[in-house]
Structures are given as C-alpha cells and as structure tokens.
Amino acid sequence: MTPTPASRPTRVAVLGAAGRMGAAACAAVEQAEDLELVATIGRDDSLDQVAEAGAEVAIDLTIPSVTAENVRWLVDRGIHAVVGTTGWTDEALEALRSQLAGAPEVGVLIAPNFAIGAVLAMRFAEIAARYYDSAEVIEMHHENKLDAPSGTARHTAAAIARGRAAAGLGPVPDATEHDPEGARGAVIDGIHIHAVRQRGLVAHEVIQFGGVGEQFVLRHDSFDRISFMPGVLLGVREVAAHPGLTVGLDGFMDLG
Ligand code: NAD
C-alpha cells in the first residue's frame, strides 16, 4: 500500500546491507520517497539496531544459515519482514507459520524471486504444464550462489506439478534406467531440475515443455540485480497489509 503524500515514510531496515543484493536494496529504498532507510545491518552488527531505529519493515538479504533466525527475531518484535534470502526448508517455514499464529498483525513475505518476469514465468509455467507431457527446468546462476537448486526453480517445479495434477497428468515420460552420476538432475515434485553455476551469470531460468512434435520454452533472465528492486519495493509497500506468511511475490500481485 503506497502511503498518501501526507503520510510519513515507512521506516525500513536492510539486513545483509553489505552484500550485492543488500547494497542494491539500500539504494532502492533511499531513492523511494515513501520509504526511509533507518538501519543497515552487516554480518557483525547487532539486530538490536533494527528495533532501536524504529524500523517497521526489515528486508533480509543475508545467507541461508542465518535468515530463519533473523526473521524469528523480527517477528518477535512485531517488525514486518520481506525476505529474499533463499534456502528456507519446509521445517523452517512451518516454525515461522506457528510463530506468526501468535503474532497475527505481523506480515512476512518470503520471495524466492523478486524479478517480476520470473514470477510471471512461474505462473505461465503452471498454465503450460497442463498441456505438455514433458517438463524440465534449467536454472543458471553466478558461481557464488550457495544453494542449489535455486528457490525459484523449486517453486517453478511445484507450480508445474500443480498444473500437471490439475490436468490429471502422470509422471513425465523418461526411460532412464541407469544414471549413477545424477546426470538427470535433481527431482523436485517429480520435475527434473538442472543447476548451472557459471561466472558472468546473474540469475536465469529456462522452462522447457515437450509434446508430440513440439517444444515450448519459457525463459527469464536477470542481467543485473537491479531487476529485483521493483519486486523488493512492492514487497516492502505491501507486507504490512498482508499479515501472516506469504510465500512468493505473486501473493502481492493481481495475477487472477
Ligand atoms: P552476498 O553474499 O553478496 O550478500 C550476503 C550478505 O549477508 C553478506 O554481506 C554477508 O556478510 C551478510 N551476512 C551474513 N550473515 C549476516 C547476518 N547474520 N546479518 C547480517 N548480514 C549478514 O549475497 P547476495 O548475492 O547479495 O544474495 C543474498 C541472498 O539473496 C542469497 O540468499 C541469495 O540467494 C538471495 N537472492 C535472492 C534473490 C531474490 O530475488 N529473492 C535474488 C538474488 C539473490
């Protein structure tokens, strides 16, 4: 919800502010007239600064091993969280849901991908999945990414699986019997995912569908981290109006 011109700016903290995404988020918040950057937290800083600065929303762009604990801390203090850090396990999500049940006014958005095009690709993939026997996901990222497969690829696989289930499709056809090296990739929700780590890349996803005599491909490329910032700002502006846990930026978009 964008505040009216008369209202004061929303007070925002960035966790992981010295990182690549965090630095871009700090710049985006500073440039937004309806937001005020009140705290920037690095690896060695105390989270107490977030509360002391009166932050209403915190953006977490840290690392998978600390993000769940950061969000637990924020929710404990009634601070809304917009989380881009990937690597959330089902157990961590469940613990967060339980915590939020006791803090009904707090909103948390966990967005595996803030790029609007990547969110659209996931939605389009769910639709396309109904019509094709075969579907596979190839995700490609820079060499410094810590987790694989990407959160976006996991969610894309889940979306494809939902589409296939809705259409009554069974397992994807695949005659592979012998694959000792795992060349067929990870399998998430019955969908194969292939992860590429390559210097020079940022974040890219190719979703391939195959039917008799045809192929349909969806592709999204983030060439620069700035591509994530419109989604980050959308999350910051909307999170207070969406109490509880929202997984996926599409929860804040009107995609029908
Ligand atoms: P990065 O390594 O450049 O930045 C991470 C930063 O977090 C580092 O500066 C590190 O020192 C800091 N950090 C570690 N522990 C901390 C703590 N306890 N408190 C505060 N800061 C801490 O990584 P990045 O490329 O900026 O990515 C950050 C995260 O965002 C990763 O999980 C990445 O997968 C994810 N990501 C998400 C999206 C999305 O659209 N959702 C897009 C790109 C990256």
Short description:
The protein is α/β, with parallel strands linked by helices and 256 residues long. The chain has helices at 20-31, 48-52, 64-76, 90-101, 116-128, 151-166, 229-238, and strands at 10-15, 35-41, 57-60, 80-83, 107-110, 134-141, 186-188, 191-197, 203-211, 214-222, 244-247. It is 32% helix and 25% strand.
Structural description of this entry:
- The protein is α/β, with parallel strands linked by helices.
- The chain folds into two domains: 10-110 and 226-252, 3-Layer(aba) Sandwich (Rossmann fold); 116-223, 2-Layer Sandwich (Dihydrodipicolinate Reductase, domain 2), CATH 3.30.360.10.
- It is 32% helix and 25% strand.
- The chain has seven helices and eleven strands.
- The chain has helices spanning 20-31, 48-52, 64-76, 90-101, 116-128, 151-166, 229-238, and strands at residues 10-15, 35-41, 57-60, 80-83, 107-110, 134-141, 186-188, 191-197, 203-211, 214-222, 244-247.
- The strands form two sheets. A six-stranded parallel sheet has the order 2-1-3-4-5-11, with helices on both faces. A five-stranded mixed sheet has the order 7-8-6-9-10.
- The longest helix is centred in the middle third of the chain and has 16 residues, at 151-166.
- The two termini are 19 Å apart.
- The model has no long low-confidence stretch (mean pLDDT 95).
- The structure holds nicotinamide-adenine-dinucleotide.
- Nicotinamide-adenine-dinucleotide binds next to helix 1 and helix 3.
